[in-house]
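Lay summary

Proteins are chains of building blocks that fold into shapes. Our project writes down both the chain and a compact code for its shape. Here are two examples, one after the other.
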Amino acid sequence: MRNLGRCLLGVLAVALRQPDSTQVQPFRRALTCVRSLLDLTMMAQNRSHTPETISYMEEYGTQFHETKDIFLEFHISKRTQEKADALRKVLGRQRAQMRERVPSSQRRRIHDDDREEENDQRMELIHSESNFSLVKMHLISHFRDHIYMFGNLPMYSTEYGDLAHKEQIKDGWRRSNKIDAARQILSSYGRQHAIRMRTLNLEFLQRAGADLPTEVVEHLEKTRPALTPPAHQRILKGRRDNMHDVIDFGPVCEISPETICRK
């Protein structure tokens, strides 16, 4: 997710680069919201903070909360969506009856006005019945106090637990026969952990100049991890070798890097 954040703002700026007259303010508000959130997440990854950096984080968080409602229409419940659909149908029937008494030369203008009014009423309904009352959204307001009390935020990141869950639980589950899987998972991880500790001890003895059997030395050479990272096995569709970020992608869309940075 951190790697995605490096290019998310540029991609969004490219996608919203040509708004019409009715989209200028919403697009600008969306870019401000995303920029504030990304600045906040990047600043929160610092291993040390000063009062100035913490004040920056508070400013980014406040700006994010002030502009996040631009995405509220994409976070509505099924019940609210049903109410919005019913409202649109009622308004459609009422306006259809009214258009019958209007000259054809004025119907186009009235139709545009009706659509704008319908959209306003829909957004009013969404804002009255939907919100971003999520725990993760609320935690942003506690970053400042958390840093003063406990230190930097990366120390309490959950990604290490997620990675351990994959290696210790999921891989063991796949290797088990799904019968009494918990016992097999613990046994499998225990054996791997014991073998790894034994290997580390032998490598330490080898570096210390201990006289190890030839077969042990050969085994250590075979199992020693490679210095270069393995190549990516999964290649996304449409990926090009000469494109690594949004700056490389800009020329394809005939957009200069200056335009991306300015947006």
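And here is the second example, written the same way.
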Amino acid sequence: MTRINVTFDSKTLRLADREARRRRTSRSNLVRIAVRAFASEHERRQAELAREARQREAVATMDRLAQKAGDWPAVEILHAWRYRLQDRWK
């Protein structure tokens, strides 16, 4: 492991010490846990944002196709397609 110096204000240091005691771990381990949790949450949030962007793009594409195709039973077609896929995996 590599040793680093970290500066905390007194309130944050007291909070870290209290949490380390509560978890029965060292302050250093608490910081490692916190950094890993922060990074993991950031990655999860980035993946969620990417998924939401893909969904928005898919909806926009479907809207463009619907405008091009005119009046057609899109919902019924999608439901039938989804149920066919579900039946394959049963």
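What can we say about the second shape? The helical segments are 10-23, 27-69, 74-88.
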